[in-house]
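Researcher: First entry.
Model:
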Amino acid sequence: MPFRVITPRRLVAVCVAAAFCLTGSLSQAQLPQTRLLAVFPQGAQSGQSVEVTVANGTDLDELDRMTFSHPGIKAEHKTGSTFTVTVAANVPVGTYEARVHGLYGTSNPRCFVVGALPEVLENDANNTQETAQVVEVGTVVNGRSNGAADVDFYKITGKKGQRLLIECQALRIDSRFQAELRLYSPSGRRIGRSIA
């Protein structure tokens, strides 16, 4: 087999071409990075503790910490993607950043809302008017969609002449969820509708 002699000038050109090819393929490599898409529930009442689950994200291996942008919000790791979050009574009402830490570093922030009102979790069996979840006036309901056709019913008791405000804050707290709120009378007649 004949050998070819490579001149120094040609050797430099070959090395530069090889280095360019190697650099080009390395620049396209994606290293894992902890990415947080959602936590649930996405908030808590001041002075209370709540169990928070990292509901969605990528590269969430070996999560061990959850931190917040306010020092009065603390999280204790329970198992896997679950944390017990305690909000001190002196934490002002507002929206704060939540991040998780794991094998692949610290995640991007997501919103965590601290409120003054009592909070409850959505009951997943509330999909019909007959199984509507009873909610007290002045309560925050932490819910989530279980699919594009998910419908949830809540039952509230008001007094004649009482003004009630029902608000969906999904878009204000980093969610892509777009809600349609409908109000029905006790007889099942629709008496109001609003797209949030």
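Researcher: Second entry.
Model:
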Amino acid sequence: SMRQRDFGKEKAFLDRYFSAHPHWEVTLLPFSNAIRTRETFAIREGDWSALEGRLRQIRYDGGTSYAALPDYSNSGEMLLCTDGRQNLEEVSPVFNGKLTIVNSSAAYDPASLNLMTILNDADFVQLAAREASPAPEAAHRVYGKIYGEFADMQGIRLYVRGRESEAVGPNASGEYSIGAKAGE
């Protein structure tokens, strides 16, 4: 769902990547709820301009699911540019090969990206600028996701210690948000 991706940061990363790997055969798999196309590009002498042109054309179409991606993985290297957000299915894919996850969006799902990184023993490249931390006394929202095989997500309650009456529960997907101050 890379609607808010920073293509300039992705391009700078890929410039460095293809400088270090100047001769590659690259298969591009743009996806939303399914693989939209499968295109192959030859990178020679670090020139990836044809691939760059195609990447610039890709637009967010409103749907995101990782479900079909593992079917296309092999024992090679893979770069997955994603913000970790899925809105069609909640899937934490396991890939064959060496995976590097690249995020350039400031609006990303850290829990999803962390889980995918762990499950795949992947490298994670965070290109998004970190937002400034609020002052310690400033209230803010904490967002998270509960992972596990729970029969009833609705039975789970989360609260800030000492404020049990303000407990919240996760939605059916395990996602939650709660008001808290830094350090609570």
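Model: Note on the second entry: Confidence is low (pLDDT under 50) at residues 132-138.
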